[in-house]
Records
---
Amino acid sequence: MTTTLAAPARETRTESSPKRPAGRQASRWLIRAASLVTALLIWQWLTATDATLWIRFDRLPTPVEVAGQLGLLLRDPLYYLDIAQSLVRILTGFALAAVAGIAAGIAVARSRLLSDLLQPLFEVVRPIPAIALVPVAILLFPENEQGIVFITFTAAFFPILVSTRHAVRALPTVWEDAVRTMGGGRWRVLLSVVLPGALPGVFGGLSVGMGVAWICVISAEMISGDYGVGYRTWHAYTIVDYPAVLVGMITIGVLGFATAGAVELLGRRVVGDR
Amino acid sequence: MSLAFHINGVSLGHGDETVVRDLDLDIRPGEVLVVVGASGCGKSTLLRSLAGLLPVRGGALLADGAPITGPSPDRALVFQDDALLPWRSARRNVELPLAIRRVPRGERRRLADHWLAQVGLADHGDRRPGKLSGGMRQRVQLARTLAGEPKAILMDEPFGALDAQTRAAMQRLLVDVLRTTPATVVFITHDVDEALYLGDRVAVLGPEGVRTLIDVPEPRDPATRGTPVVRAAREEILRSLT
Ligand SMILES: Nc1ncnc2c1ncn2[C@@H]1O[C@H](COP(=O)(O)OP(=O)(O)OP(=O)(O)O)[C@@H](O)[C@H]1O
Ligand SMILES: [Mg+2]
């Protein structure tokens, strides 16, 4: 669906601006940069003048203070250890969720028995916010580490499952019929039709899954981690180191942006233009 | 290398609805049988049953004497449109039936190129279906079907979505290509002229079964178009269609 919608848009764009792409592109980047810089300037102004409107900016660190803190932390090995720790947790949870979510999504969409068997379970568990599973995770797993990965897994699993199921259900039957009348069996249909056909939808689910996985890994670290960006940010708050809190938040933002971009890029490489 | 179908007292349907009742028809090995009939009379339903995608309600549906219980590479189905896998290039689409038959990779490619050349698309093997015209896509589908070397080809309005000119070109191409294959062909169309040009026989299907079965005089000879015998056959088909 998304690919058929995207194709004409791409065409009109290349047709309507054959001459001015470079200049237009540059000016668009300029606007984007100006937007960020303006936001920073307003922040600096509000915090430097200790503005107290109805919300109070007198205790919020200034961007300059935050930048100073960031400079310090960039030279601190612990900062990188935290990032590595969070990345290991989220990538483990996300990878497991991707495999399980895609497999379960296909199973539920393709088999009536498996759908009857699993669907009620999924529907009951799905509305529970993954972060509410912290107590369960603590009870179930011998170590914190596994609990955090479990929560990340649960968070990413459901969006991937649902997108995969919808994408598989929406596949036109003609492709499957064609492969079956060529003598293709169940596995051939799965590998040559269902998986590649559902891929655009699956990647939609992976993008959403990566987003919620970050929310949950950070929250879980804040509650029960002993390393990681979330833990460090919360720790900074408890010792009233506000600039470090903001550095933590910015770090989370950048990491989230980078992983979302990686999923997007991989999706474009794998799905290609159809 | 060509299948005979034996259809005896067959009932077909979807869900609660029975579409075709008590159908009798014998399809001879190697012939081109064209099926025409009003929209909704069950032509596609019949074809899907012959392909093994739809089980029969009752009666005997036999391919070379054996009951049809499921799909088989012997009986290929050609669809109206959009049956190619859009993420595969034309060549990789044609390679698919070969891959299913476990033909070695190099041989697969050689055969795919051969069949693409047969339908006049030797230079378009690398294109995705989305980058081909409707007529080209149907030619790729034809190449894909022929690559599987089926004993029967079941075609469901394969040219129905094409404009008149492309359609005429495709009919000529089909006649050319069919000369090189011994396969039995069952061809569904709404176009009586197409039926008379392509078929050895034309069956007019109605809800009560086969209404008329006409032997086409001088099949696949364009020179006979408009001659009195063919005009008579045309009149007879049109009469039983209404
Ligand atoms: N998948 C389906 N489920 C339920 N009913 C169906 C299905 N496919 C077809 N039918 C019904 O079966 C009847 C015959 O349909 P079929 O597609 O075989 O007709 P057709 O002769 O091929 O028509 P057309 O010339 O328009 O293609 C129709 O009444 C249709 O509503
Ligand atoms: Mg039909």
---
Amino acid sequence: MSVRGRAAIVGVGTTEQGELPGRSADEVAVEAISLALADAGLGKDDLDGLITCRAGLGVGGVDTGVGELLGIHPRYSATLQYGTCNFSLHLAVMAILAGLADTIAIAYGATQRSEKINFGVPHSVDLASTAGFVHIAGPAGLALQRHKYLYGTTDEQFGNIAVAQRQWAQLNPLAIFQKPLSMAEYLEQPYLVEPLRRADVTMISDGGAALIVTSADRAAEFPKPAAHVRGIAETTALDGGRTPENLMRPWIANVARDLYASSGMGPQDVDALYIQDPTAVWVLQMLEYYGFCPVGEGGRFLAEGHTYPGGRLPLNTNGGQLSESYMWGWLHLCEAVRQLRGECGPRQIPDVEVAMYCSTMTFAKGAASIISTSR
Amino acid sequence: MTQPRLLPDVKNPLAAPFWAGLREHRLVVQRCPACGTKRYPAAPLCTACLTPGGEWVDVAPEGELWSYVVYRRALSPAFADDVPYPIGLVEVDDARLQILSRIDAPPDSISIGARMRARFTPVTETVTLLSWAPAEESAAAHD
Ligand SMILES: [Zn+2]
């Protein structure tokens, strides 16, 4: 079954990113929803659905709390325990197809920077944690080291992810990291968790993002051009992967297969690509599994410069979590919609019709969506 | 290796036999009484066939280094005195179990695919930790 032609994104809202001291995650989520509603020409009472997302490792993000602060009582509401926005968009599409709601706000707010959340705290007191295996840079670094060993991927090839995203970020007023980052400067950075450098790992920041999703039949009623949902797909690896190969997350290829089958599209149709990037390793893996280059060729592909401004595969044109802001992937989809609308000023991709967004919930789940200017 | 400030919970009933094994310089893991699947870390049931429980059996504490990282900066204050420290994932020969721990070797000497053997280091009266070392080197250390 395909969802093509059934749902569309008609509103986008993003708050200031960075440090928002003294504000709660729910408050920031409500601000993002207000901005998305204004963008869609709607009032809050026009919403009949609300899908929120846990506020990272911070406090808040539950639909009952956000909905109360927003002062609405929609027909349908839900909370997802994990972010990236893809899963939230998919749930909204399903709710629309099921007739549970027709005008849904999906939203995320987080104040993890102001809450001083430490992502290096061990999750448990098992052998690996007590040895110092903490932070997402640990498993991501293992995967990259293995990739280098198997395929000869070099630091410089891999560094093109962070360096290209910084170039994009310099064209994005919302981005927090605007300082130029040359390849030489990247290579001079000391390792954080070798083989990863600071520039390869997400920042921690406060902010909010929200989108308004509605049925495609109504999409023309809204002031801004709609971004139509052309395909969605997900998979899980909930069994945790009992072999080391799970660190390479080969199951992501199943999302690609299902997404391309359901949308009737392929990587050659994608004008703008977005890949959620808690570390740059995720970008390397997903470029390969989604078929933009063969598995193992990611380093060489990146070194050819395709993902930079002016390249043939614009990638994370917002700067991503490495340079724009850490919104658990939510800003990637916001940027994709704005690119399709032609709102992106100096970083606008010419003639963009199809955008794709790929994300994962660490080693447990994967999801992707294709959105387009046409239904 | 200096004594880590963060110590494992060796009294948790689920994993206590694992830690008791390390105190005896043995690597023990659970084996499903129904289907024989070995598992690490400890779990209340076999995730292959859902049979509860498991008997604790010895596995040879050696295998191949699948990959490694080197923490060059302490991402948690608990490890500030330890940096730089390498951590490796070893695929234990027996049942392809994967065990992540510290590598007792200079970072520059580590290579993927190397044979690794467990080293058991008592750090308190109740806690002995397992780390990995290149097989030839650790054999020499025990001679
Ligand atoms: Zn079993």
